Amino acid sequence: MNKMTVTSMTRRKSKPSHRLTMWIRRIHLYSGLLMFPWVLLYGFTALLFNRPHVFTDSRTEVRHLQLDTEQVRQWFAADELATSVVRATLDSEQSTAEANEESIEAESVYFSGTFSYSRETDSLTETLTIDPNSGSAVHRITTKPPASGKKPTPRKAQLVQPFPWAENQAAVLAAAGVEDSEKWTLQRQPSLEFSSVGESTPKLYRFTPTSRENRDRGSSTTSSENDASPRVAASGDLIVVGDHPRDLSWRAYLLRLHTAHGYPFEMNARWFWAITVDAMFACMVFWGFSGLIMWWQIKRTRLLGSVAIALSLIVAIGLAVAMHWEMVHG
Q1: pLDDT reported for residue 250
Q2: CB-CB contact of 286 with 24 (8 Å)
Q3: Burial of 177 (0-12, 13-18, 19+ CB in 10 A)
C-alpha cells in the first residue's frame, strides 16, 4: 500500500469530524454576527445598571465622609438594641435571674446594611448613606434636569360602585377551576382605554385603576344586615392619551430594554423582543461550548487554556459563594 493510498484513507475517515468542526465554526461565526447588536446592548445596559450616573442628563456630586466611629456606635447603639431584643423575646416562663444571665457577645453585633436619609427639592435630590459599623458615609447631590414640558395632570375619578371584577372575582376564579377563591387577592389590573363620543375631535382616554381598592372609611355607620360586607370605593386616574407623550430619557429607555422579558398574549413588538431574548440565551450558551471545542483543536494552546479555565472556575465559584453569603447575611 503506497503513501497516497494511506493518506486518502485517513482523509476519508476524518471527513465527518472535519465537517462537524466546520459547521461548528460557521455557526459560531454567523450567530455572533447576527447577535452582535444585542451583545452590545446587553453589555452597555449592564454598565448603566452597575454605574447609575453614566449617560445621564443629571449632574451628581458625590462626597465620601468618615464619621467618628465611636460616636456612630453610640448614635445607633447596636449593643443596647441587641440586648433589648433578646430580653424582649425571652420565654415568659424564664425567671428574672435567668433573664439577667442572658448576655450578648459584643464582637458578634453588627448591622447587616446601611442607614439612608434623603430629601428632595424642586431642583435636586440628596441622599446620605451611612454604614453604622464603620462610620463611612456617602453624600450624593443629584441635580434634576430641566422639565421638558408640562407634565400631564390626571383627573381623579372616584366611583360609587366597586370595580366589576371585584364583584365577579369568585365567578372568574371558579371558572378557572381554582380552589379557595376567597383566599385569592388581585395583584395587578390593566388600564381601560376608550374613545370619546359626540365630540368633533375624538379623543382616546385611558383610565388607570388604583393598585388596591380603597375601603370606604368616610361613613361611621355600621353596615346593615343585608349588606354585611364592607363598602368598597373604586378610584383611579383618567388622562387623554397623546396629549402629553411620555418623557422617556435615553438612559431609562435602554434600561427598560434590558429588563424587558416575557411573552405577551398578543403578537406585538414585545413578543418579537422576547424571541430575541431566547435567541440571545441560546447563542451565548453555544458560543461558550463551541469556543471550548475550537480551543481544544489547537494543541499548542491546550496547556495555557487549561490554566485559564481552571483559574476562571476557581474565581467564579469563590465569588458566587461569597455573593450568596452577602445576599443572605449582608
Answers
A1: 82
A2: no
A3: exposed
Task: List residues bridging with 115 in a β-sheet.
Answer: 130
Q: What is the pLDDT of residues 277-328, one digit of tens each?
A: 999 999 999 999 999 999 998 899 999 999 999 999 999 999 999 999 888 8
Q: Which residue has the cell 453588627?
A: 110
Phi and psi for 144 in degrees, rounded to 5?
-75, 140
How close are the terminal C-alpha atoms of the chain, in Å?
Answer: 73
| Whether the Cβ atoms of residue 60 and residue 53 lie closer than 8 Å to each other | yes
- What are the two backbone dihedrals, phi and then psi, of residue 188, each rounded to the nearest 5 degrees? -150, 145
88 - beta bridge partners? none
pLDDT of the residue at 245 = 59
- Nearest-angstrom CA–CA distance, 139 and 118: 10
Which cell numbers in the block locate residue 37? 447588536
Instruction: Name the residue ranges covered by the structural domains of the chain.
Output: 3-53+266-329, 59-143, 155-217+228-246
The predicted pLDDT at position 167 comes to 83
Within 13 Å, how many C-alpha atoms sit on residue 175's CB side? 5
How many separate helices (H) and strands (E) can be counted in the chain?
10, 10
Residues (pLDDT < 50) of the chain are: 6, 9, 213-231
65 strand-pairing partners: 137
330/268 Cα distance (integer angstroms): 41
Q: What is the pLDDT of residue 315?
A: 94
